From TrEMBL:
This is Pyridoxal phosphate homeostasis protein. It comes from the Bacteria. Keywords: Pyridoxal phosphate. Its cofactor is pyridoxal 5'-phosphate. The keyword Kinase does not apply. Belongs to the pyridoxal phosphate-binding protein YggS/PROSC family. Pyridoxal 5'-phosphate (PLP)-binding protein, which is involved in PLP homeostasis. InterPro entries: Ala_racemase_N, PLP-binding_barrel, PyrdxlP_homeostasis. Residues 11-226 form the Alanine racemase N-terminal domain. The keyword Ligase does not apply. One of its GO terms (molecular function) is pyridoxal phosphate binding.
């Protein structure tokens, strides 16, 4: 089986999982975006996934993404692609990341929001990364303080507040984590009705995330296979 056949099979399996998860809770698969996490994989894989109909791709390292997005543009000139930054972002890297990223999914502080706003040449879409358990080592803004950061982001003319992103904590069941996020987002939308994105769920827990309102699942391993060694 060649690489195109492998990716086509994996994509079909992931789409089937999404469809079944949606059916189980009375949702349409059209409500859930598939974000392909292509970190550590080559631009050639992104090109194949683009040929197979995917348009949303995620990277977590600025240097790798800068190179890969340029290579993809050469491989598939004019192809539709939206690139997401899903890794931890240092404030001094904001300008560099915005050269390739269409959306920053990991804004987790007022200082980082301000840095992205300052670096943005045009209004930039962002998600707030939420920490469900408050573990600062794993990144994310404390869920209890979400409204304050959301209000700050929404006031910025350089930022477009699209919603939230989270990773289920290791010491908590995915069901519990995603339920807590959904409750917080429901309250948040009273003041921010346009913050409709809930980016939650990955290869191992996307069903639980969809059951609790996820509108975007970030899938790497189930789609592309085991991680390759990251380039330097």
């Amino acid at each position: 089986m060649n690489r195109r056949e492998e990716l086509a099979l994996s994509l079909a399996e992931v789409k089937d999982r999404i469809a079944k998860a949606c059916a189980a809770v009375g949702r349409s698969p059209d409500e859930v975006e598939l974000l392909a996490v292509t970190k550590t994989f080559p631009a050639e894989d992104v090109a194949i996934l683009s040929d197979l109909g995917l348009t949303a791709f995620a990277e977590n390292r600025d240097q790798e993404a800068n190179r890969k997005t340029a290579e993809f543009a050469e491989l598939r000139p004019g192809a539709a692609a939206k690139w997401h930054m899903v890794g931890s972002l240092q404030r001094n890297k904001a300008k560099s990341v915005l050269r390739w990223a269409d959306r920053i999914d990991t804004v987790d502080s007022i200082r980082l929001a301000d840095a992205v706003a300052k670096a943005a040449a045009e209004p930039t879409e962002v998600l707030i990364q939420v920490s469900i358990d408050g573990d600062e080592a794993r990144g994310g803004h404390p869920i209890g303080d979400l409204p304050r950061l959301a209000d700050h982001v929404a006031r910025s003319s350089e930022l477009i507040f699209r919603g939230v992103m989270t990773v289920a904590p290791l010491g908590m069941s995915p069901q519990q984590a995603f339920a807590a996020l959904y409750e917080a987002v429901t309250r948040l939308r009273v003041d921010h009705p346009d913050a409709t994105v809930i980016s939650a769920g990955m290869s191992g827990d996307l069903e639980d995330a969809i059951a609790h309102g996820s509108t975007c699942v970030r899938v790497g391993t189930a789609l592309l296979g085991s991680r390759r060694l990251a380039s330097p």
